[in-house]
Structures are given as structure tokens and as C-alpha cells.
Design brief:
By secondary structure, the protein is mainly α. The chain has one domain. Helix 1 runs antiparallel to helix 2, helix 2 runs antiparallel to helix 3 and helix 4 packs antiparallel against helix 5. The radius of gyration is 18 Å and the shape is flat.
Length: 219
């Protein structure tokens, strides 16, 4: 019994760390800091899967944890940094919603999620915790995508949202099938490459990746 309590505590610590990373996404303005927050969030997700692999003894979870660490924790951030250098963008300037108000909205979203999910009696303790964190991360990421002006920031928020959705699927299924995990990681990597190419082309064509300016263009 004591061992299971300790296991639940590990899951709680890791999942809360991921949630704090999403909250940091709201307060950070430097692009490099946003990328680092995503790296930390991804490594925590990979660590959570690794702990699950040890507990459940599922070989495919070891592979999924390793692939998550390599793709989300290394390859995608490396590609993002190259895109940022090409775009010559260093920070988010004047978001639609101020940082203090964004933090307040984020805490309100987390409060709504936690109060709503607690009524879902069909969930076990571990699944309930992971689902609360996953939905909170998804909603905060969606809010950042709406409230920020830079395309790069919105791409990073999209990556955070994908981590949240991945965590939700993992928590509800107690470890997604290996084929689905591989498919999700491959699609994510290809999607980021495509988004990066589009961002660079937008910069070359319109001399800006500020979406607020792009909406004023007339052709």
C-alpha cells in the first residue's frame, strides 16, 4: 500500500510540474525561454512514461518514453531554434492580453477544470489527476494561441497543447498502443517542419511574422 502511495506521489509531482510549465508559458515573453519551457514539459512527459513503464512492465512504454525524449525533448526544440534564428525573432511584444491578466485567466481555467473533473466518479485517482492536468494544459495553450501575436509563440503553444492531449490519452488508456504513439510522434515532427517552412516563407514575403500585421494586408 505504501509503495502505491509513493507511486501516486511521483505521478502527482511530474504532472504538476508539467502544469507549472504551461503556466510559465503564459508569463514568458522571450522565445528562447518559451522553447526551454517546452523542453522541460516534454522531458517531464517522457519521465512520466518511463515511470509507467517500470510500474506496468510494458516494453513499448520504454520505447515511447525514449522516442518522446528524443523527438519532443531534442529534435523539435533544435528545429525551432533554427527557425527562430532564421526569422530573427527574440521575444513576444505586446500580446493581446497583458501578462498579469493572462495569469489570472490561466488560474481560473485550472480552477474550473479541477472543480469539474472532481465530479467524474468513473475515474480512478491516477487517471483523474492526469486528466485534470492534461485538460488544464490544453486550455492554457489554446488561450496562449489566441492571446499572442507572434506565429512562433503560437506554434510553441500548439506543441504544449499536443503534450496535454498526449497526456490525456495516456492517462485514460494507461499507456497508448505503440503504433498510435509512433504515429502521433511522426505526425507531430512532420507538422513542425511544415510550420517552420511556412513561417520562414512568411518572413521572406511579408517581412514579419506578427499575425496582427498580416491581418491588415490586402491583395
Amino acid at each position: 500500500m505504501k509503495e502505491w502511495i509513493e507511486i501516486f506521489s511521483v505521478f502527482d509531482y511530474i504532472s504538476i510540474g508539467m502544469l507549472l510549465g504551461a503556466v510559465a508559458l503564459v508569463s514568458l515573453t522571450r522565445i528562447e525561454s518559451l522553447i526551454r519551457a517546452y523542453v522541460g514539459n516534454s522531458w517531464l512527459l517522457a519521465g512520466l512514461m518511463g515511470v509507467s513503464a517500470v510500474i506496468l512492465g510494458e516494453p513499448h512504454l520504454y520505447a515511447a518514453s525514449l522516442l518522446t525524449a528524443i523527438t519532443k525533448g531534442a529534435l523539435i526544440p533544435l528545429f525551432l531554434r533554427r527557425v527562430v534564428r532564421r526569422l530573427e525573432v527574440t521575444r513576444e511584444i505586446e500580446p493581446f492580453v497583458s501578462t498579469p491578466m493572462s495569469l489570472i485567466i490561466s488560474f481560473v481555467l485550472v480552477g474550473i477544470v479541477y472543480s469539474s473533473i472532481s465530479r467524474a466518479v468513473f475515474l480512478t485517482g491516477m487517471a483523474e489527476t492526469l486528466l485534470k492536468v492534461a485538460i488544464s494544459i490544453t486550455l492554457i495553450s489554446l488561450f496562449v494561441m489566441i492571446s499572442r501575436r507572434k506565429a512562433v509563440t503560437q506554434v510553441i503553444a500548439l506543441l504544449f497543447m499536443e503534450n496535454g492531449l498526449f497526456l490525456a490519452g495516456f492517462g485514460l488508456t494507461k499507456g497508448m498502443p505503440a503504433l498510435i504513439e509512433l504515429g502521433v510522434l511522426f505526425d507531430l515532427l512532420m507538422g513542425i517542419i511544415i510550420l517552420g517552412v511556412f513561417a520562414v516563407q512568411i518572413k521572406k514575403t511579408f517581412v514579419s511574422v506578427d499575425l496582427d500585421r498580416l491581418t491588415t494586408l490586402k491583395g
